[in-house]
Automatic annotation (TrEMBL), chain A:
Protein name, UniProt field: nitrate reductase (cytochrome)
Keyword hit for Nucleotide-binding: no
Species assigned in the record: Desulfacinum infernum DSM 9756
Recorded coiled-coil stretches: none
BP term (GO), one: nitrate assimilation
Swiss-Prot/TrEMBL keywords: 4Fe-4S, Electron transport, Iron, Iron-sulfur, Metal-binding, Molybdenum, Nitrate assimilation, Oxidoreductase, Periplasm, Signal, Transport
Molybdopterin dinucleotide-binding domain: residues covered: 439-545
PROSITE patterns: MOLYBDOPTERIN_PROK_2, MOLYBDOPTERIN_PROK_3
Molybdopterin oxidoreductase domain sequence ranges: 1-333
GO MF annotation: an example: molybdopterin cofactor binding
Automatic annotation (TrEMBL), chain B:
Domain 4Fe-4S His(Cys)3-ligated-type stretches: 77-116
Domain 4Fe-4S Mo/W bis-MGD-type: residue ranges: 221-276
InterPro entries: 2Fe-2S_ferredoxin-like_sf, 2Fe-2S_ferredoxin-type, 4Fe4S_Fe-S-bd, 4Fe4S_Fe_S_CS, Mopterin_OxRdtase, Mopterin_OxRdtase_4Fe-4S_dom, NADH_UbQ_OxRdtase_75kDa_su_CS, NADH_UbQ_OxRdtase_Gsu_4Fe4S-bd
Keyword Cytoplasm: no
Family as reported in the entry's similarity comment: Belongs to the complex I 75 kDa subunit family.
Upper lineage: Bacteria, Pseudomonadati, Thermodesulfobacteriota, Syntrophobacteria, Syntrophobacterales
GO MF terms held by the record: 2 iron, 2 sulfur cluster binding; 4 iron, 4 sulfur cluster binding; metal ion binding; NADH dehydrogenase (ubiquinone) activity; NADH dehydrogenase activity
Pfam families linked to this entry: Fer2_4, Fer4_7, Molybdop_Fe4S4, Molybdopterin, NADH-G_4Fe-4S_3
Organism: Desulfacinum infernum DSM 9756
Name of protein: Formate dehydrogenase (NADP) alpha subunit
């Protein structure tokens, strides 16, 4: 997030899109409801589904799935046309404005109505409300990013934010809501193929040299951008990737077009899975390593507002299970022993026998030592330590020991200097409903479960509240197909099919069905499209075409 | 402004209640329905104080101060009135502390002790309480114990103020009064989201986890403050552990969530001690799984990784880190993949 969660209390207008906030981020959802209820903040919801937040909204726009660039450009069009934009901000802080202005010319509210199905007048109202707000915040989540053009969607939102100068101040900003507890931290720590910790590019030789020295490793750090997860599985099938090491993730259930993923897992020469349960993915492994849960280890998580907070150990892990950090340290040593065994000479050449500065090779007494090391090589974390984050956590960037942390970003300048407007053309989703597959399918979460359900499905209470998948379908469509709540249906896409119970509900738009990916019994991702966004490599989980058939009882 | 409380001259500000001022100056006025996170409710009458000029005692939690106000908090009359209030509560509320999970950590118990309420007191009145029948609660995750309930109204208030839902309310009158799910409010039916805020504020354990583990006694429970493992809000909470078992999640003050939690954060801890947890490394051999010790398993992993790396180069190895692991672990993992294996093929599934 560019801004802090607490700033919800300061803002005047909140725009939510592609985030079922009250279900996926309940605490943030509640704060937004409270802002609307108590302070009369205005809420705009843009979502094809009638999500619970809609009942708190002043304006609800219901676009067709996958048409986000069109309505966002439409908002910009209205704001420019009616002169509601922030001329000063645009002049002083941005570039590329003229080209952008040209690019949104065609997105008249009437055109947007055709493309998205949003009434032109509603779009105008929303545009005025957002642009005129003294302070406005935008929240978005996977409903914006999980598209074949997800990167464009985000850029379009960034255009809107800059156009109205709704960034760089308290109570403004463009705020992605992170789904998993430490997505932010995993990215910060360089669990990404193109950057080292702190978003330092692997292609920057100076950066590489620094890490080479810091890590005192004899292995040459690669300057070649690695493969993102979505390219790894195809690479396995092409024979370019032979081994995988998967920690605490369950791609056999969570990834788009899972049949394809499972085929790849099957084809691997060697697969290590490290997790707390025997997941669907573990079933494909050669070695399964038992890890500790969050209750059984010390460390830090970084939340969606970039706040680094402590995780503290309450109990010991069960049996032989160990914290992931301990496993990595022991593995690094085993690896070096193995090299030594093969040839002392080769080991030296590989530099693996080399000692790490002042401590033994991969020896850390506890996670605080690892934290100190990572803070030393990660500029945005440089000023942090366990001691400093002990109470309440601190938001990065925190470049030095006395820096208080950064509640909101882009105060006086953007990371790249001036904010760049992007001229964006509208491209629809990769797969549209047609005669054979007449429905849109969208996937998401429900409040009571988490991700692939590995943890929540094993919590008796939560599983009782939501024991099984229920595919949601609009009453109009249900009636046409002669389906009632409780019936079983088969949902078929070009890639696969699943069977599940139906819930007739006003939530999905007519012509759309909705399913979650929490339930192993109904692996909805066999249906989804693995068409990738060309930049982010995120698959289009939010839109694909399916048909719905009633299953005879 | 200043007020005179128990003979002391105290500074006060416009808008403060008598209770606020008392607390600010460490004067203890007993309370029961009052909760820091909620607006004053004023239902229990434990906090009554005498204010000069007023013929009857007033509730300190709901009465605003005015300049020159003269307040007494502990006169013999007040103490007697509070005893009566407590006795009425204990007419219904079972004095069965030994069997109660919050024994030793209960405001009502503390007050009974402070005001010397004992069994003989309960025969003062020649009435027997009607037993309110158990009934369904707003969520199957929470069990409501009508006899324990002192009808303070905290739960009702929490559901409105903290959760913004309003799924429960008082139902029935007198001895039959109870807390029950709201049926319908005009055209809408408020839907319980199973967040457990009501349970968290209940002072007397009248709301308990329906499917929870048996909780430990207050004195055998360790409380460890940590960060929720589910979504990216990063709520702060407290794991309650007895021995090596997590028995409950309780809120802590502060944090982004200011003490509030959602259903996952509060009720989603069962998986930690689940019997299906992996407890030993496993190696696949001829299509079946074999339990292994760590040295064996890690030596095998190292051997295979070295093999594949020397045959096909480092880029033939790919790694997925985890958005559920800590920063330290993600850091070490990518350091291993980059600095030991020598490839940038490291990513995580978060974008999915
Ligand atoms: S669990 Fe939450 S929503 Fe349900 S009654 Fe209690 S406070 Fe209200
Ligand atoms: S259930 Fe608890 S919080 Fe609610 S009225 Fe009864 S005693 Fe008070
Ligand atoms: S308690 Fe709920 S809202 Fe808070 S971090 Fe956990 S899952 Fe998210
Ligand atoms: S605490 Fe004041 S009336 Fe209950």
């Amino acid at each position: 997030m560019t801004n802090s969660i607490a700033e919800i209390e300061e803002t005047d207008v909140i725009l939510i899109t592609g985030s079922n906030t009250s279900e996926a981020h309940p605490i943030i959802g509640r704060m937004i409801k409270r802002a609307v209820d108590r302070r009369r903040a205005k809420l705009i919801v843009v979502d094809p589904r009638k999500i619970p937040m809609v009942s708190f909204a002043n304006i609800w726009l219901r676009p067709r799935p996958g048409t986000d660039v069109a309505w966002i450009n439409g908002l910009c069009h209205v704001i420019l046309e009616e002169g509601l934009w922030d001329r000063e901000f645009v002049a002083q802080r941005t570039e590329g404005f003229e080209e952008f202005r040209e690019s949104v010319k065609e997105f008249t509210p009437e055109y947007v109505e055709q493309v998205c199905g949003i009434p032109a007048e509603d779009l105008r109202r929303a545009a005025r409300l957002y642009a005129r707000a003294p302070k406005a915040m935008i929240f978005y989540a996977m409903g914006i990013t999980q598209h074949a053009h997800g990167t464009d969607n985000v850029k379009a939102l960034a255009n809107l934010v800059m156009l109205c100068g709704q960034v760089g101040r308290e109570g403004t900003g463009l705020n992605p809501l992170r789904g998993q507890n430490n997505v932010q931290g995993a990215c910060d720590m360089g669990a990404l193929p193109n950057v080292l910790p702190g978003y330092q590019p692997v292609t920057d030789e100076e950066v590489l040299a620094r890490f080479q020295a810091e890590w005192a490793t004899g292995v040459r750090l690669s300057n070649k951008v690695g493969m993102p997860v979505t390219e790894m599985f195809p690479a396995v099938l092409e024979g370019r990737l032979r081994a995988m090491y998967i920690v605490g993730e369950n791609p056999a259930l969570s990834d788009a077009n899972v049949s394809h993923v499972r085929e790849a897992l099957e084809a691997l020469d060697f697969l290590v899975v490290q997790d707390i349960f025997f997941t669907e993915t573990a079933a494909y492994a050669d070695v399964v390593l038992p890890a500790a849960s969050f209750a059984e280890k010390d460390g830090t998580f970084t939340n969606t507002e970039r706040r680094v907070q402590r995780v503290r150990k309450a109990i010991d892990p069960p049996g032989r299970a160990r914290a992931d950090w301990e496993i990595f340290c022991r593995l690094a040593k085993a690896y070096s022993r193995e090299l030594n065994k093969r040839s002392a000479v080769a080991a030296v050449a590989n530099g693996l026998a080399a000692r790490c500065k002042d401590r033994g090779y991969w020896d850390y007494a506890d996670p605080s030592e690892i934290f100190d090391e990572l803070a030393a090589v990660t500029p945005i974390y440089a000023g942090l330590s366990y001691k400093r984050v002990e109470r309440g956590g601190i938001q990065w960037p925190c470049p030095s020991r006395h820096h208080p942390g950064t509640p909101y970003l882009h105060k006086d300048r953007f990371a790249r200097g001036r904010g760049k407007f992007h001229a964006l053309a509208f491209q629809g989703p990769a797969e549209l409903p047609d005669e054979e597959y007449p429905f849109y399918l969208s996937t998401g979460r429900i409040r009571f479960h988490y991700h692939t359900g590995t943890m929540t499905r094993r919590c008796r209470g939560l599983d009782r509240l939501a024991p099984a998948e229920r595919i949601q379908i609009h009453p109009q469509d249900a009636e046409r197909l002669g389906i009632r709540t409780g019936d079983r249906v088969r949902v078929v896409s070009r890639r696969g099919e699943v069977e599940a119970e139906v819930l007739v509900s006003e939530n999905p738009a007519p012509g759309m069905v909705f399913a979650t990916f929490h339930f192993a019994e109904v692996p909805v991702n066999v249906l989804t499209n693995d068409a990738l966004d060309p930049v982010s490599k995120i698959p289009e989980l939010k839109v694909c075409a399916v048909r719905v058939e009633k299953v005879a009882a | 402004m200043t007020i005179l409380m128990d003979g002391m001259r105290l500074n006060a500000r416009e808008g403060q209640t008598i209770l606020d001022v008392a607390r600010e100056h460490d004067i203890r006025i007993p309370t029961l329905c009052y909760h820091e996170k909620l607006k004053p409710i004023g239902s229990c009458r434990m906090c009554i104080v005498e204010v000069e000029g007023s013929s009857t005692p007033v509730a300190a939690c709901t009465t605003a101060v005015s300049d020159g106000m003269i307040v007494r908090t502990h006169t013999p009359d007040l103490v007697e009135l509070r005893r009566e209030t407590l006795k009425l509560i204990f007419l219904k509320h079972p004095m069965n502390c030994a069997a109660c999970e919050i024994n030793g950590n209960c405001q009502l118990q503390d007050l009974a002790h402070e005001y010397d309420i004992n069994h003989t007191d309960l025969h003062t009145y020649n009435i027997r309480p009607v037993e309110p029948e158990p009934g369904p609660y707003a969520t199957p995750l929470i069990q409501y114990h009508p006899r324990r309930c002192i009808l303070c109204g905290r739960c009702v208030q929490a559901c409105v103020e903290i959760t913004e839902v309003g799924a429960i309310n008082f139902k029935g009158r007198g001895a039959l009064a109870r807390i029950a799910p709201v049926e319908r409010m005009g055209s809408i039916k408020p839907e319980c989201v199973s967040c457990g805020e009501c349970m968290a504020v209940c002072p007397v354990n009248a709301l308990t986890e329906a499917l929870g583990k048996k909780r430990g006694k207050a004195w055998e429970t360790r409380k460890v403050k940590t960060t929720c493992t589910y979504c990216g809000c990063g709520c702060q909470l407290e794991l309650n552990a007895v021995g090596e078992t997590v028995t409950a999640v309780t809120p802590v003050d502060g944090g982004v969530n200011r003490g509030a939690l959602c259903s996952k954060g509060r009720f989603g801890y069962d998986f930690i001690n689940h019997h299906e947890r992996l407890k030993t490394p496993l190696i696949r051999e001829n299509g079946t799984w074999r339990e292994a010790n760590w040295d064996e398993a890690l030596d095998f992993v190292a051997k295979r990784l070295v093999d594949i790396r020397s045959e096909s180069g480092p880029d033939a190895i790919g790694a997925l880190a985890s958005a559920r692991c800590t920063n330290e672990e993600n850091y070490l993992f990518q350091k291993f993949i980059r600095g030991v294996i020598g490839t940038n093929n490291v990513d995580h599934c978060a974008r999915l």
